[in-house]
Specification:
- It contains eight helices and 26 strands.
- It has 536 residues and is mainly beta.
- The protein has a single domain, classed as 6 Propeller (Neuraminidase), CATH 2.120.10.
- A nine-stranded antiparallel sheet has the order 11-12-13-14-15-19-18-17-16. A five-stranded antiparallel sheet has the order 1-23-22-21-20.
- A hairpin with a 2-residue loop joins β3 and β4.
- The N and C termini lie far apart (56 Å).
């Protein structure tokens, strides 16, 4: 007992010290090279590995996962036109790096070129409050892995969706932005250098200028949208049983500046409460699918969680019910000014008015920014409304993550357990495709939990998995066909429910001690896969 108490106190002290130093820019991550500890800028190169802390010369790739590809089922025409292949899972042991364990609740991700034929895949492990880096070869087979941010650095705050910042797309970087959403006491937006040394995993920098939210994600849109500015959008996964109060936020600074800009919230030009679909914009349900509504940006002064929330209410900013993931349309500068985001929804049987204010089954929105000024008048449209009976999204169950190409948005479900309230909801978590040119919706893929539970003894049929973290890596790896990476949180495949199957071949539980201690770990499995052949 005394030993456990000592460990606990040490962890609390480390969390406190980490929080004190968050936001200090001293070159630890190699961004400005003042001390070059990780060797990214070549200031010292002391570790001899260009800052990744791993040597790849002798790495042997994992050629095949122990988990069958059949845990997912491609649907309709995609069954013949696309191909899914598992990259790795928590049950897999990397041949040249057996100590690395792929942790719980795989979520946001990004891929960065490291050296010829080698890529750094940055991946949030939400329930382990940490961020991993997995080195992949040109075939996207994993070589080695480490944790570059651990649970102490985040003060046990869940790291949810993440996004890349690169010179090619944004005019500065490389950086990785991670959303601190729930748990712990360090919510907000984290900035991580993808090639930082794993020795620095005890530290993580937050960006106070972007505000403190229950941050699902923070996304920088393409540099062509506004050539002299950096524009960042934040999703607030705030759930409330009376008044939906998740606010959609935007930060605007000069190019590459994430510290000295201004912060805004989205407000409708008709900020009153009306019946669903009647045009009021105090709460999201006043807006109907298929209509573009005029919206505006209000500058906010606060930066901390409760104060920002109150300022949003006082300013009559639009109240959404749990804003999840965000992405922007690729292609022209006009495309770059189209921003898409998911609202996952909430239901309470004893709060019938809640459904008149915030979505129950989920929505997908399109925000079209002003051509000349990101803070100028804009429009907001509901593209998919899961609450509209008989509509094109009827049967959608809690959209969470989203990624957008030039012509399509791919919407990933994290079912909230509301299937009994809508007979159109069938099966398990799905991947949907939204055609941005025609508005057509198609089902791409579904989690095959029946097969996994009965044939592989992975998970069960009562805890829904979540499809998450999908990104487009086609151009990054120079692929000859569209190539996406994605993953799943395999709820129910954990050591508590399935102590025999929820372990690796060597008996190791699903946690890595460099990320989190066993007592605090989720001990649940994650999947990582690639899909080829889906249109962009």
């Amino acid at each position: 007992m005394n030993t456990l108490r000592t460990i606990f106190l040490r962890m609390c002290l480390l969390s406190f010290v980490t929080i004190i130093f968050m936001g200090c820019e001293d070159g630890r991550d190699g961004l400005d090279g003042r001390d070059g500890v990780d060797g990214v800028d070549g200031a010292d190169g002391a570790d001899g590995t260009d800052g990744t802390g791993v040597s790849l010369e002798e790495s042997i790739p994992l050629e095949k996962s122990v988990v069958s590809n059949d845990v997912f089922e491609l649907k309709g025409s995609f069954a013949s036109s696309a191909k899914l292949e598992m990259i790795m899972t928590s049950a897999d042991i990397l041949p040249s790096d057996s100590t690395f364990v792929y942790g719980s609740y795989m979520d946001g991700a990004a891929l960065y070129p490291y050296k010829e034929g080698i890529y750094a895949f940055i991946n949030n492990l939400e329930r382990d409050y940490s961020i991993a880096r997995i080195m992949l070869n040109s075939d996207l087979q994993p070589l080695q892995g480490d944790y570059i941010v651990n649970s102490i650095a985040t003060a046990f705050t869940a790291q949810c969706s993440g996004s890349s910042v690169t010179q090619e797309e944004h005019g500065f970087g490389p950086l990785y932005l991670s959303g601190g959403e729930w748990g712990g006491n360090a919510k907000g937006v984290y900035r991580i250098h993808p090639f930082r040394s794993a020795d620095n995993r005890w530290e993580a920098e937050r960006l106070p200028a972007l505000g403190e939210w229950s941050t699902e994600n923070a996304v920088v849109i393409g540099k062509d949208a506004y050539p002299s500015k950096t524009v960042v959008f934040m999703g607030d996964d705030d759930g409330n049983d009376e008044h939906p109060e998740a606010h959609f936020a935007m930060y605007v600074g000069s190019r590459g500046d994430l510290n000295g800009g201004k912060l805004y919230m989205l407000k409708g030009t008709n900020p009153v409460e009306t019946a669903p679909g009647e045009g009021g914009q105090l709460f999201e349900m006043g807006m109907a699918e298929g209509t573009a509504y005029d919206v505006e940006w209000i500058e906010v002064e606060e930066r901390t969680l409760e104060e920002l929330n109150q300022e949003g209410r006082d300013s009559l900013a639009i109240g959404f019910q749990r804003i999840e993931d965000i992405d922007w349309r690729r292609g022209s500068d006009n495309n770059n000014r189209e921003v898409y985001f998911n609202v996952t929804g909430r239901r309470k049987d004893d709060k019938p008015d809640l459904a008149n204010r915030g979505t129950t089954f989920g929505r997908v929105y399109k925000l079209v920014l002003n051509r000349d000024n990101p803070t100028g008048p804009a429009t907001l449209e509901v593209m998919m409304d899961g609450d509209r009976e008989g509509g094109k999204a009827d049967g959608m169950h809690s959209p969470d993550n989203i990624f957008v190409t030039q012509n399509y948005a791919y919407i990933q479900e994290d079912p909230n357990g509301y299937a009994a309230y809508n007979s159109s909801i069938q099966g398990y978590a799905k991947l949907w495709q939204l055609d941005l040119n025609t508005g057509a919706v198609a089902e791409v893929m579904e989690c095959n939990q029946e097969f996994a539970a009965s044939e592989l003894k992975i998970g069960n049929t009562t805890k829904y998995w979540e499809i998450t973290g999908m990104i487009d890596v086609t151009d990054i790896i120079g692929a000859s066909e569209p190539t996406f990476i994605g993953g799943a949180q395999v709820h129910g495949w954990d050591f508590g429910d399935q102590p025999e199957s929820a372990v690796r071949a060597d008996g190791a539980k699903f946690y890595d001690p460099t990320a989190i201690n066993e007592a605090s770990a989720g001990l649940e499995g994650s999947f990582l896969f690639k899909i080829t052949g889906l249109p962009r």
